[in-house]
Predict the 3D structure of the following.
Amino acid sequence: MAGNGASPPADLLAAARELAARLQARCVRAGLTLATAESCTGGLVGHVITEQPGSSAYYLGGVVAYADRTKAGLLDVPEATLAAHGAVSAQVAAAMAEGVLRRCGADLAVAVTGIAGPEGGSEAKPVGLTYVAIAGVAGTEVRRHLWHGDRVANKVESAEAALRLVLERLGEGTGG
């Protein structure tokens, strides 16, 4: 299935689904809402979240902002930030999370931007480079990751990293 644009096989998403189930339980228990902003994952984080029955109790929605003009137009990422740092950067990841937080009126927001591959990488920004950001009352935090799989594996790893980061913000160790 990899490489033909189809969704990843269910077994590749098992860990992500388990993280999403834990996230849902945490958010519902705490009365918190979540929004997502995704680029390289193409909506995979939102997909895994909404695979859980009852996710509408906390998940407000998300924006898949693949193009820079969409990041600027829908997520309020400053064009100057995109020009200075590039779409795959800590600065843009933070701006995406903050933008979707404001736009959706959520308590928490998570954003992902990266280079899934197989093309698009450079020496400075190799394939697999991904930034995941979380924004909310406690501020904004960004994590840098470098995955080494194929396109599908990099997208799945990035989605899992996003879910783990939200769980960590909620005080749960995620073991990974």
